[in-house]
Structures are given as structure tokens and as C-alpha cells.
Amino acid sequence: xxxxxxxxxxxxxxxxxxPQISGQIRxxxxxxxxxxxxxxxxEQHLRPGGTVSGPAMFALADVTIYLAxxxxxxxxxxxxxxxxSIDFMRKxxxxxxxxxxxxxxxxxxxxxxxxxxxxxxxxxQPVARCSMTYSIPPGAKG
Length: 142
Known about the structure:
This protein has 142 residues and is of the alpha+beta class. The chain has 2 helices and 8 strands, in the order H-E-E-E-E-H-E-E-E-E. Its EC number is 3.1.2.-.
């Protein structure tokens, strides 16, 4: 399956359409099965106790699934989250970036379902798992 958007195109899209997260989340790699994104963890992502906040992990998961969908259907800014579930499994390390690995489980005409595992960079065990469903606007998928 040919990708509609590669790493450079996805990162350019993020910078252009979502400047509020520019420089925070970057696509590391993408192919027909997996998209990996990195949260460049800094002070704004931490909470008391020296760990990455839940909202920062949720944002990483949400953006990662969104980008994985766009990598397949092209630039569709109005694809939106319709359902989300996240499990926080262990404390991420504050001094490490987070890596999110996304697999799209279903890509239909109007709905897409994806799963993300988030790990601290260099660690094997996931710190969080997220499942999301996205709504794709009519006529957007080409």
C-alpha cells in the first residue's frame, strides 16, 4: 500500500496546521503498518513527582493516531476523534522523550480505529496504551 503522506510531509503539515505543538511532536518513521512519533519531553510536559503528565501522553496518542490516518488518506484536517480510551500502566521517566507506536486496526469510509503503545525512549515496557476512533469527513478518503 502506497502512503499518501511520508514523514517530511506529515511533519510539515503539523508545523503548518498545528503551530501550538510545533517542535513538540515529530514523526520518526511511517510505513504501511506502523507510524512512530516522538514527544520531545521538556518542563511543560511534567507534573509534580517527576513524571510526564497524563494530558501530555494523551495528546501524543491522539496526534499519533491522527497522523497515521493521514499517512494513508492524505491531508484531511477535519478528521476528528470520536472515541478514546487510555490506560496509564507505569510511570514514564521524566528525563526521556516518549515514543508512540501506532497501528491502524480499521480504516473504513467514515471511521478509523487505531491503537497506540507509548514507551519512554530506550525502555521496552509501555507506559500507556490508547485506543481511538476517528471520524473521517464524507468524501475525504481518496
